[in-house]
Amino acid sequence: MLTLERFVERVAQGIVSRLARLRYRRFLEVGGPLSIGRNVVMRSFQGGQEGRKSQLRLVTAGHNTIGVGVVIQGTGRLFLGEKTFVGDYAVIGCNAVITVGRDVMIAQAVTIRDTDHAFDRTDIPMNRQGITTAPILIGDDVWIGHGAAILKGVTIGTGAIVAAGAVVTRDVAPYDIVGGVPARVIGHRRTDDSPSETAQDAESRT
């Protein structure tokens, strides 16, 4: 049963979401229902190896949720598949391309960044050495736990789980469970009762 309190909460969230979509419309390409929480920040800033000004783009497939206090920033393109949500206070830094599949659960306080500061030289402060970027690909049905960090150039396969607090610096095979700093395989979702792996899944594990 829908209580009055819950009804008021839903109405308020709807208003917040519509206002946020209006405020950030220049960044958005919306393919279906999209809920945006309170205090979300989307911003473009100077970036790229050429130092040019580019426009952040967030492309959503539909039935997506962006939680309270999420920060999405950069000069790249972020794609969210259908029924994927971004948990409260997550930070996504996108200066290249970040692609997230369908039915992905991104928990609270997760960090996803396709960018690093350059730091090869010691005669110049690191904040003046520019950045390096590499695309991130997150497959369908992935669960990224609370406080995990996904770093540039990583591919996370379909059905994988990233444990809370893990720092992912290299690719994760489909259905693997990874944890730790840096993240390593600590388990695998497949069992004898599970459907057999597809050829694509098997190839990615070799």
TrEMBL record:
It comes from the Bacteria. The keyword Transport does not apply. Residues 196-206 have a biased composition (Polar residues). CDD domains: LbH_MAT_like (cd04647). Gene3D superfamilies: Hexapeptide repeat proteins. Keywords: Acyltransferase, Repeat, Transferase. InterPro entries: Hexapep (IPR001451), Hexapep_transf_CS (IPR018357), Hexapeptide_acetyltransf (IPR051159), Trimer_LpxA-like_sf (IPR011004). The keyword Transferase applies. One of its GO terms (molecular function) is acyltransferase activity. PROSITE patterns: HEXAPEP_TRANSFERASES. This is Acyltransferase.
